[in-house]
Amino acid sequence: MRLALAVAAAYVVGAVPIGYLVARAFGVSDIRRHGSGTIGTTNVLRTLGSGPAVLTLAGDIAKGFVAVALAGAVAGGDPLVRGAAALAAVVGNCWSVFLGFRGGKGVATGLGAFLTLVPWAVLPAALVWLAVTATFRFVSLGSITAAVCVPLGTVLLGYPSASALATLAVGAIILVRHRDNIARLMAGTERRLGERAAPS
Description:
Layout: H1 2-15, H2 18-25, H3 41-48, H4 50-74, H5 79-94, H6 107-117, H7 119-136, H8 139-156, H9 161-177, H10 179-187
């Protein structure tokens, strides 16, 4: 029962469409009609600029963190419950019940969840994200490589198997959600960091 309640609560927390709400507050009625069509930080940045993007990033990270922290509090720190909550929060972000089961790509929410679940595995992955993004200026490429690094770090650092499985599942979701980006990277048409999409 605790597992079911924690997962359901984590999904609802993760499903709160931060980017959509931030964009509406800044005058864009539906961020999904602009840029890449998602509600994530990168699309908000390209459409509305750095201020709204920072708010979106902070909100998405916070909801992942809170979802796992609450689940851990309810279940006494049970790794299985916390891992399931991390996965549920990312699923909520990507397929939000509030947006007709559409949403973001799970990166920032996954980051927040992992900061609670496997904090020491986040550090090397964050450095990889920074290095790749700064070098190539593709946020998507940085996100993909970081998503692969977190499960590896989780295993190498000896975190519980439930945590490792959760990071692997979240990483797989992030890769699937970036399939269009992967296609554009291979075709050489992916947008680089800093390119703007004018709102209509």
